[in-house]
Fold:
Amino acid sequence: MSEIDEALGLFGGRAARLVSERENAVYAADLPGGRAAVRLHRPGYQTPEAIRSELDWMRALASAGVAVPAPLAGPVVLSTGRVATAVAWMEGAPLGEGGEPLAGDPVTQQARFRAVGRAVADLHNASDGLDLGAGFTRHAWNIDGLLGAAPLWGRFWESPALDAEERALVDAARAKAHGMLGAFATSGGDYGLIHADVLRENVLMRADAAMLIDFDDAGWGFRLYDLATFMTQNEDEPNAEALRDAALQGYREARPLSTEDEDLLPMFVMLRRFASMGWIVPRAAPGDPKVRAYAAKAVTAARAFMANA
Ligand SMILES: N[C@@H](CCO)C(=O)O
Structure:
């Protein structure tokens, strides 16, 4: 029996259709509780306890009125060892896709970015008010998780696509960022539960409202990381600066963000580019141009960081 058939059997669901296989395999299906996204989780990434915690968090956010997918079933461990869950299907159109020009005219785009900034702030605000219990466990995008000896998405500085000069640059930027992040954390930099993968693919738009989906990478982290991740797909947009400003405006409508913190955004963009440079390595064949493309973006960010910081 296939994994999805086993999961459907356990959830009492039917009519599954594969809709995405980016990290988890996600199927649209009908469950007794309604239309669902049934997820077969990527083996070896999150533990069943962490996935249960993700669902507890989603349930608490949904109860608090935040537009996130409410849990419907699971987690269950399938006979293959893979974990399956189901969350409510969210109607809406993805904001866009990385590497593709953003749809819509600039006014529409900026209105959407403002809505996303607002949704991220709402998530941070609501998460700060939750008591998720002693068993709650998620990984942390903290200094170690971003820059330590074993970062959550791998030892990015070992990407085979870096030449010796670039590796030295990345090492220097990593050391410098480590110091700056330490100072930021010590001075009370905003830290708590974050989505950690605010990419266009993970934002659904319904009318004028933005909704975040796919909390698989979510955990503890610096709030600026969410805003920075959202900035990493805009470098080819002619109005990239206006898009950033719109997202920050939306964020500030619901949650404070000082100009000192805003000044750290380029560093956080670099940290995300470092993480992604590590993320792609086990997911692509050696020599795949994507490995170089991720490394090149990280190097560009590191050069700017070392020149300006
Ligand atoms: N592909 C992502 C990483 C995983 O979502 C990125 O570009 O940062």
Observations:
- The domain at 93-308 is CATH 3.90.1200.10 (Aminoglycoside 3'-phosphotransferase; Chain: A, domain 2).
- The chain has a mean pLDDT of 96.
